[in-house]
Amino acid sequence: MKVIDTTIPDVKIIEPAVYGDERGFFMESWSRGKFAESGLPVEFVQDNHSRSSQGILRGLHYQTEHTQGKLVRVTAGAVFDVAVDLRKSSATFGRWVGVELSDSNHRMLWVPPYFAHGFYVLTKSADFLYKCTDLYDPGHEVSLKWDDPEIGVEWPLIDGAQPALSEKDKAGLPFNKAPHF
What we know:
CATH topology: Jelly Rolls
Largest sheet: 6 strands, antiparallel
Number of strands: 13
Number of helices: 2
CATH class: Mainly Beta
Distance between the termini: 31 Å
Mean pLDDT: 97
Structural class: mainly beta
Radius of gyration: 16 Å
CATH superfamily: Jelly Rolls
Strand content: 35-45%
Helix content: under 10%
Shape: globular
CATH architecture: Sandwich
Low-confidence stretches: none
């Protein structure tokens, strides 16, 4: 397993060892011991799986209580995955990191607690899996405006078309009015 730094030091790209041949492949997607040895001593309490069609954008989501760290990956298709630092005391407050995750690159992204998270589907569809360090708590969920100019995420929108959004994400808060940590 290879842990790669991003422009935000606490957000990490994880490249697992993938063993493959003409029959397919095998990879270990999470190991408590290996993650701890790599400086990521996390415990997960919930696994989630979503399937979305091309052009759908989910996020940018976070919880103000029961904050969740997330280990995210794609098992079918490809997405552009984004994490936004919401920690006021951080040197990277308000900055974002974006990484393509796909079934072919096998990359995972570690998104720590106190970060907003979202993804945009690049392929016909994508299966997105994520492990969380705390339980989902809809009463404390916040959605940031996906295209807030203060954050400035450079989404790779297909043909420049507007993404498909949920009603919750259409009503996302601007960064300067959203709760921070």
